[in-house]
Amino acid sequence: MGAIHDREQYIDEALNKAELAKKEMARLTAQNEDLMLQARAERDVILKEAKALKDGILNEAKAQAQAEGDKMLEKAKIEIANQKKAALAEMKAQVSTLSIEIAERVLRGQLQDKAKQQELVAGLLKDVELN
């Protein structure tokens, strides 16, 4: 009878240990699920922060590229305006030179003849007297 009782006691202890192990396993499983949920939540937060950081970097790079493009465009406009002014100044100088050369040739042609010289002087004197 003692052996049966020992055997029953051994079985009861084994069942109790099995029940404790089962409860511990359930607790560990629940704890593991909680840790997995926390890890997923942390992962989501990290991904969200990374996306926000990426978007910020991209926006900053776009703004910087736009500003640099605007500067380059402004420099190009200034350069074009300067070249246009230089071209106009050169053209004016050439027109002035050509005008003087033409006037010089016309005057030489007119001053070769004595009668034309006197007529020109008389016309100039008349203009001066009227003013």
TrEMBL record:
Keyword vocabulary terms for this entry: ATP synthesis, Cell membrane, CF(0), Coiled coil, Hydrogen ion transport, Ion transport, Membrane, Transmembrane, Transmembrane helix, Transport
GO molecular function: proton-transporting ATPase activity, rotational mechanism
InterPro entries assigned to the protein according to its UniProt record, in alphabetical order: ATP_synth_B-like_membr_sf, ATP_synth_b/b'su_bac/chlpt, ATP_synth_F0_bsu_bac, ATP_synthase_B_chain
Membrane topology: Single-pass membrane protein
Protein name as it appears in the record: ATP synthase subunit b
Coiled-coil blocks: 11-38
Superkingdom of the source species: Bacteria
Record family assignment: Belongs to the ATPase B chain family.
Subcellular location: Endomembrane system
Main location: membrane
Gene behind this protein: atpF
PANTHER family xrefs: ATP SYNTHASE SUBUNIT B, ATP SYNTHASE SUBUNIT B', CHLOROPLASTIC
UniProt record, GO biological process: proton motive force-driven ATP synthesis
Gene Ontology terms: cellular component: endomembrane system; proton-transporting ATP synthase complex
Subunit field text: F-type ATPases have 2 components, F(1) - the catalytic core - and F(0) - the membrane proton channel. F(1) has five subunits: alpha(3), beta(3), gamma(1), delta(1), epsilon(1). F(0) has four main subunits: a(1), b(2) and c(10-14). The alpha and beta chains form an alternating ring which encloses part of the gamma chain. F(1) is attached to F(0) by a central stalk formed by the gamma and epsilon chains, while a peripheral stalk is formed by the delta and b chains.
Biological classification of the source: Bacteria, Pseudomonadati, Bacteroidota, Sphingobacteriia, Sphingobacteriales
Species of provenance: Pedobacter quisquiliarum
